[in-house]
Design goal:
Blueprint lengths: L4 E5 L2 E8 L4 E5 L13 H6 L3 E5 L17 H15 L5 E6 L1 H12 L6 E5 L11 H6 L1 H5 L5 H21 L11 H8 L3 H12 L5 H8 L6 E6 L13 H4 L4 E6 L6 H4 L1 H12 L3 H4 L8
Parallel strand pairs: 3-4, 3-5, 5-6, 6-7, 7-8
Antiparallel strand pairs: 1-2, 2-4
């Protein structure tokens, strides 16, 4: 395992892993997850010639909490841009975001398109162009549950965060539980303020949302993007990726991973990792693939 490092950005002491040399590839985790989620594919990404930087997002131990309790996508997007500015050097900057990390990548790309050369967005739809069906509302029940005060914190923490195990089972039904490795995320959620911070992402998106945030996330993305989803994802239905060409108006590729759930980079690394590397390098067979396969 690489050495854990620290970097202060936007008033927060972030913890992160780093492997490899070359152009920056910033890898951003989601919920319920941690920077450890990318450790399995980091060696292959580094071997492909990238400097792979994997931070724990704000609020996720061992990164610090937000002093203002701000876990909005505006704040997270600014964090992404601060990472890029601090680590890109003179070369290109790439961002790979999974789940909330994908939303953060979208926010940053729409804030400052020139800061990101290419990006990968995994397991989240574009907020403006997702197909919000009844089936998806059923899958997303937890989002509304997390809007409640105090009750979610109590429920999620019961029995050593068994709630998280159930989410993984529902979201990735074909993935062997022995490979989940939930220790890091449960430790992060169990730290003082950790669970409230993680749920703060959901609360900031809905009950704390501002017009500025929604306008930002509703914009079409112009940065060249590879969108990845597992077709067995129990959190985000495959129909949420219909109409990608309206959401991503720049160069676009789409990777649908058969049998994978919400964590395709871990469930099907042999498929995802080479596709990510090829897209970031601009390989024609990847960048020309597409969009119609989503439906």
């Amino acid at each position: 395992m690489p050495e854990l490092k620290t970097q202060t950005l936007n008033g927060i002491d972030f913890a992160y892993y780093e492997v490899g040399e070359g152009p920056l590839l910033l890898c951003l985790h989601g919920f319920p997850d941690s920077a450890d989620t990318f450790l399995g594919i980091a060696p292959a990404l580094a071997a492909a010639g990238f400097r792979v930087v994997m931070p724990y997002l704000r609020g996720y131990y061992p990164s610090g909490l937000s002093a203002e309790g701000d876990y909005s996508m505006l704040a997270i997007g600014r964090d992404v841009l601060a990472w890029v500015e601090a680590f890109r050097g003179d070369g290109p900057a790439y961002v790979y975001g999974h789940d909330w990390g994908g939303m953060a990548a979208i926010a940053a790309a729409n804030m400052q398109p020139s800061a990101i050369d290419r990006m990968v967005v995994s397991s989240v739809p574009h907020m403006e162009h997702g197909a919000w069906t009844l089936g998806q509302f059923r899958k997303s029940w937890y989002v509304m549950f997390f809007q409640l005060p105090w009750l979610p914190e109590w429920r999620v923490a019961l029995d050593n965060f068994a709630f998280i195990d159930r989410l993984y089972q529902a979201w990735s039904p074909h993935w062997d539980a022995s490979e989940w490795q939930l220790g890091p995320v449960k430790k992060a959620l169990g730290m003082p303020g950790g669970l409230k911070a993680a749920l703060g992402y959901y609360r900031g998106m809905i009950r704390g949302a501002t017009r500025e945030q929604w306008q930002l996330l509703a914009q079409p993305v112009t940065v060249p993007t590879l969108v990845i989803c597992g077709d067995a994802d129990g959190s985000v239905g495959i129909d949420q990726f219909d109409g990608l060409e309206r959401a991503y108006t720049g160069e676009l590729a789409f990777l649908r991973v058969p049998g994978a759930g919400h964590f395709p980079h871990r469930e099907a690394a042999d498929v995802v990792t080479p596709s990510v590397c090829a897209f970031l390098r601009g390989a024609p067979e990847i960048t020309a693939s597409l969009v119609g396969e989503a439906s």
